[in-house]
Design a protein that fits this description.
globular; lyase; Ornithine Decarboxylase, Chain A, domain 4; Aspartate Aminotransferase, domain 2; Orn/Lys/Arg_deCO2ase_major_dom; 17 strands
Length: 484
């Protein structure tokens, strides 16, 4: 296919050239009706914010702009089919789960899954068969499930409709997708990979193996995370004959907005062209930048750039080195504290911080200049730091984090419930999910039996700066539990 073509970007340019005008949404009419103060900030975006149909395309979509852009995306990455979504990978993964298991059984699910997967369980009523993460107890860090764990899960639950794993994790660690896919396919069952952090993987041989190349049946990627799209831009990739593509499209239509944002479509279309034409050279440069970042950050006292600790037989299968994960525990500070200092004092934001780590996510937009700004900022933080800020985060042992699932997530979430004081929650069944964010992996899932260790971890974490936005009470003074 001709990857110099951008059907949606070209159609949008033509829409503007012709001076089309629609008596349709959006009501701002390409910015004509917007507040001038808003136009000052969003003018270019508003001009390109037009209705998809009838607007960019006609009322019957006879131009085929979206279909052509999706076909080009599939060809660029070697998938059989691709679907664009403007509601983020959170929607895409729900649609994939419903297409594979909705109405007819359960899914084998890694317990280190993102909150969107748990939300999919609640929406669909699908029964999860959890795979416990592999825990590094020393570093309080989880690794993706191994093929052996997936095989044991299939042996115990052969009735499952499929399996779903997250790879790469928000930290850049990757599962052995090829090994897991082979085990699923031995049983004639599909593998879904939530690869939200891996949109760039097909475009460079030094990056971890992309899920489709490793044999996954459905792969969901977020173009905005490691690509160059707008927030909420997501793509489903599909291959093989184990997934009903018609059902997948219908499930996506059930969940997706009827007012898709053309800006998101256009950005995904243009990013595909950029990567098809220049992806390897752009990622060559990004990987060189990542090596420079790792080298320089490693020289700062008390900051350990993690790499070897993340890989191995009992750890992760591979690592995306554009995700520069730093253990800061030797400084006595929490990652929350450092992230707050960088934002307040150096105007630098970090996408992820936890009780002992910070993460710098690099992309093809970064270079030596941006990396050196981060290095200089961390050196400045280290030089001004005197005594560590006291904190007392209760870190549960791995077995204490393995909460027992006693109800379907859907039944617990939608059933009769009540709010109880946090101290009274141990021994009760959770009716809401509780997710430190980022990285967005739930500590408590609806239907799980809450224990004291997890409550103390959350209480002490919030006191130290942990962000837990999910619960009805974000201060965690109370939790919603199933009514007795």
């Amino acid at each position: 296919m001709d990857h110099s073509q951008t059907p949606i970007v070209t159609a949008l340019r033509e829409y503007q050239r012709l001076g089309r005008y629609g008596f349709t949404p959006p009501g701002h009419r390409q910015g004509l009706g917007a507040d001038p103060r808003v136009l000052d900030v969003l003018g270019g975006a508003l001009r390109a914010d037009v209705l998809a149909t009838p607007g960019l395309d006609d009322r019957l979509s006879r131009g085929g702009f979206l279909a052509d852009a999706e076909a080009l995306m599939a060809d660029a990455v070697g998938a059989d089919m691709a679907f664009f979504s403007t509601c983020g990978s959170s929607l895409s993964v729900k649609a994939a789960m419903m297409a594979v298991a909705g109405g007819r059984g359960g899914l084998i699910v890694g317990r280190d899954s993102h909150k969107s997967i748990v939300a999919g369980l609640v929406f669909s009523g699908v029964q999860p068969y959890w795979i416990t993460p592999r825990w590094d107890a020393e570093r309080h860090f989880s690794h993706p499930p191994s093929p052996e764990q997936v095989r044991r899960a299939w042996d115990e639950h052969p009735e499952a409709a499929g399996a779903i794993i997250v790879s790469p994790s928000p930290y850049g660690t990757c599962a052995d997708i090829a090994g897991i896919a082979e085990i699923c396919h031995e049983r004639g069952k599909p593998l879904i990979v939530d690869e939200a952090w891996g949109a760039h993987l097909p475009f460079h041989p030094e990056l971890p193996t992309w899920a489709m190349d490793a044999g996954a049946d459905i792969c969901v990627v977020s173009v905005h995370k490691m690509g160059a799209g707008f927030e909420q831009g997501s793509v489903f990739h599909v291959q093989g004959d184990l997934v009903d593509r018609g059902r997948l499209k219908l499930c996506a239509d059930l969940l997706m907005t009827t007012s898709p944002n053309v800006l998101l479509y256009a950005a995904m279309d243009g990013w595909r062209r950029q990567m098809a034409e220049h992806g390897q050279e752009l990622l060559d440069a990004a990987l060189r930048t990542a090596r420079h970042a790792r080298d320089q950050l490693s020289t700062i006292p008390g900051i350990a750039v993690m790499e070897r600790e993340l890989l191995g037989v009992e750890a992760s299968h591979d690592l995306d080195r554009l995700q520069v994960l730093m253990d800061v525990s030797a400084t006595g500070a929490t990652g929350y504290e450092i992230a707050d200092w960088l934002r307040e004092n150096r105007r630098i934001d970090l996408g992820m911080s936890d009780h002992r780590r910070i993460l710098a996510t690099l992309s093809m937009a970064d270079d030596k200049t941006t990396v050196d700004t981060l290095v200089d900022a961390l050196i400045a933080w280290r030089l001004q730091r005197n005594e560590p800020t006291p904190h007392d985060i209760r870190l549960p042992a791995p077995r204490e984090l393995e909460l027992r699932s006693v109800m379907l997530p859907r039944d617990a979430f939608f059933g009769p419930c009540e709010s109880v004081a946090l101290d009274a929650a141990p021994g009760r069944i959770a009716a809401e999910q509780v997710t430190p964010y980022p990285p967005g992996i739930p500590v408590i899932v609806p239907g799980e039996l809450i224990d004291t260790a997890v409550v103390e971890y959350l209480r002490s974490g919030v006191a130290a700066g942990m962000n837990v936005p999910d619960p009805a009470d974000p201060q965690l003074r109370t939790l919603r539990v199933v009514r007795r």
